[in-house]
Design a protein that fits this description.
- With 112 residues, this protein is α+β, with helices and mostly antiparallel strands.
- The chain has helices at residues 15-31, 76-90, and strands at residues 2-6, 9-13, 35-42, 48-55, 62-65.
- The protein has one domain (2-94).
- The chain has a three-stranded antiparallel beta sheet with strand order 2-1-5. A two-stranded antiparallel sheet has the order 3-4.
- The longest helix is centred in the N-terminal third of the chain and has 17 residues, at 15-31.
- The protein is elongated.
Length: 112
């Protein structure tokens, strides 16, 4: 498990979620964007909660490994969605110019 500190507060979450969160925040910074998230986490007394946070280019997160008797939750779906959102921010996107008169039709007589 990992304790993530942000904006003067901290929460305990799975290693996979914390690592995905760090990658997502880095991608947001590269794109000068901000996003709102709800992160599955635990309170200090072990209660499962959703931590709401807004992260962006100026977000300063710190993650510290922490021993816990809590069983890590199934986070596959959340981590998968966070990974997709990260890829959408970091993948090159094609630019389509709809005003260019592009055609794949050729007149073979013009090639001579």
């Amino acid at each position: 498990m990992m304790r993530v500190s942000y904006a003067g507060a901290s929460f305990l979450t799975s290693d996979d979620i914390a690592n995905g969160l760090f990658r997502f925040v880095a991608a947001l910074g590269e794109n000068h964007e901000a996003e709102s998230l709800e992160i599955p986490a635990f309170t200090d007394d072990g209660k499962a909660v959703l931590v709401r946070m807004v992260v962006g280019p100026a977000s300063e997160l710190v993650g510290v490994p922490e021993e816990s008797v809590l069983e890590e939750p199934n986070t596959v779906d959340f981590v998968s969605e966070l990974h997709k959102r990260t890829l959408a921010l970091s993948s090159p996107r094609p630019v389509i110019d709809t005003e260019v008169g592009f055609s794949t039709a050729y007149d073979w007589d013009d090639l001579e």
